[in-house]
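Entry 14: structure prediction run for Major facilitator superfamily (MFS) profile domain-containing protein. Input pasted below.
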Amino acid sequence: MGTIIVGRVLQGFGGGGIDLLVQVILADMTTLEERSTYLGLMAIPSAVGNIMCPTVGALFSTYASWRWIGWVNLPWLGVGTPLVIIFLKLRPIRSILRSLEISSASTGLEWRSLSSESRFQLFQ
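Run finished. Output tokens:
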């Protein structure tokens, strides 16, 4: 039972990351005026999935083993991954933003190392 719980937690993190990544990519690829339309279109599969999931889950548990539910996404992955690789064209990050990102990360790491208690114990 513990394995199932850990697996569902990991699956939940992955699903949440996918939802967030879709919204970030749409925000990057569309204008402000188009954004609401495309975000609405991307909500349709989620709504259909919420409606169909109890029925599909019941069919799987009746006619197949419940373990097949973990494998049902693999065909979608096999179709979706090549489509993303072929058709997804993102704009590159501008160099000034990239340098800001690196300097912000290094500053945050420096502050974190200075604020640790072990660092202050060395100086006392």
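Notes: The helical segments are 2-29, 32-63, 74-87, 95-115, 117-123. Will compare against the previous run tomorrow.
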